Amino acid sequence: MHDVMPSMSREVNHLKRSVLRDLLALAVDPTIISLAGGLPASEFLPLDEFRSCLETVLRRDGAEALQYSTQHAPLQEWIAGYMGRRGVRVGPEQVFITNGAQQGLAILSRLLLDPGEQAVIEQVTFPGIQQVTAGRGAQVRQIPTHLESGADLEALEAAFRQEPRPRLAILVPDFHNPLGVSLSAEKRALAAGLAARYGVPLIEDDPYSELAFSGQPLPPIKAYDEAEMVFYVGSFSKILAPAVRLGWIIGPASMTPQITVIRESLDLESSTLLQRAVAEFFARDAFGRHLQPLRDANRERCETLLAALEEHFSGLAQWSRPSGGLFVWARFPQELDTFALFPRAVERRVAYIPGLAFTLDGSQRNAIRLNFSNLRPQAIREGIQRLSEVIGEHALSGA
Amino acid sequence: MHDVMPSMSREVNHLKRSVLRDLLALAVDPTIISLAGGLPASEFLPLDEFRSCLETVLRRDGAEALQYSTQHAPLQEWIAGYMGRRGVRVGPEQVFITNGAQQGLAILSRLLLDPGEQAVIEQVTFPGIQQVTAGRGAQVRQIPTHLESGADLEALEAAFRQEPRPRLAILVPDFHNPLGVSLSAEKRALAAGLAARYGVPLIEDDPYSELAFSGQPLPPIKAYDEAEMVFYVGSFSKILAPAVRLGWIIGPASMTPQITVIRESLDLESSTLLQRAVAEFFARDAFGRHLQPLRDANRERCETLLAALEEHFSGLAQWSRPSGGLFVWARFPQELDTFALFPRAVERRVAYIPGLAFTLDGSQRNAIRLNFSNLRPQAIREGIQRLSEVIGEHALSGA
Question: For the domain A47-286, what is the CATH code?
Answer without folding.
Answer: 3.40.640.10
